[in-house]
């Protein structure tokens, strides 16, 4: 596709698949946090859905970053840290689920034709580390 086509691609709406997923768990609370990754990227959006004293540790190599973001970084001379704090880099929505539930949730998302990955885990928070991105300058 052309650059113009990529930049004009409509925003993905997550409401229907998320509601469908949540309706499938009426007895057990499977989703404990949700974050729409918009301006501010993962570092600013994901921590908002975590309880006090928790942090997200993100394995930045756990998904393939869409090539558009590499192009934007190079064309705009954007430092890696700024890229992470501005764009979603291919992760538009995050669900926080209990350990051991991730495979079932991923299977349901993929069954509805949505890409899904385990991108990290929730850990205890140390001051100033609400979202830790492995390999990304703080």
Explain this structure to me?
With 138 residues, this protein is α+β, with helices and mostly antiparallel strands. It is built from six helices and five strands. It has helices at 3-7, 15-23, 41-45, 67-76, 80-84, 102-111; strands at residues 33-36, 54-58, 93-96, 120-124, 131-133. It has a three-stranded mixed beta sheet with strand order 4-2-5. The longest helix has 10 residues, at 67-76. The chain is globular. The model has no long low-confidence stretch (mean pLDDT 88).
How many separate helices?
6
N- and C-termini, Cα separation: 34 Å
Number of strands: 5
**Mean residue pLDDT:** 88
Can you tell me the overall shape? globular
What percentage of the residues does DSSP assign to strands (E)?
15-25%
Major sheet, described briefly?
A: 3 strands, mixed
What is the radius of gyration computed over CA atoms, rounded to a whole number of angstroms?
16 Å
Question: In which order are the strands of the major sheet placed?
Answer: 4-2-5
Q: What is the helix content?
A: 25-40%
Structural class by helix and strand composition: alpha+beta
Name the descriptors.
138 residues, alpha+beta, two-stranded antiparallel ribbon, 6 helices, 32% helix, globular
Produce a short descriptive summary.
With 138 residues, the protein is of the alpha+beta class.
Tell me the layout of helices and strands.
Elements: H1 3-7, H2 15-23, E1 33-36, H3 41-45, E2 54-58, H4 67-76, H5 80-84, E3 93-96, H6 102-111, E4 120-124, E5 131-133
């Amino acid at each position: 596709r052309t650059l113009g086509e990529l930049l004009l691609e409509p925003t993905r709406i997550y409401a229907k698949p998320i509601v469908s997923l949540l309706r499938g768990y009426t007895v057990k609370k499977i989703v404990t946090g949700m974050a729409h990754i918009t301006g501010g990227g993962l570092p600013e959006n994901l921590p908002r859905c975590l309880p006090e004293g928790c942090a997200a540790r993100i394995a930045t190599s756990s998904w393939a970053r869409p090539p558009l973001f590499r192009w934007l970084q190079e064309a705009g001379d954007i430092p890696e840290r700024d890229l992470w704090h501005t764009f979603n880099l291919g992760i538009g929505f995050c669900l926080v689920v209990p350990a051991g539930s991730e495979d079932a949730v991923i299977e349901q998302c993929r069954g509805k034709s949505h890409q899904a990955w385990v991108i990290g885990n929730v850990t205890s928070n140390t001051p100033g580390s609400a979202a830790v991105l492995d390999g990304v300058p703080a």
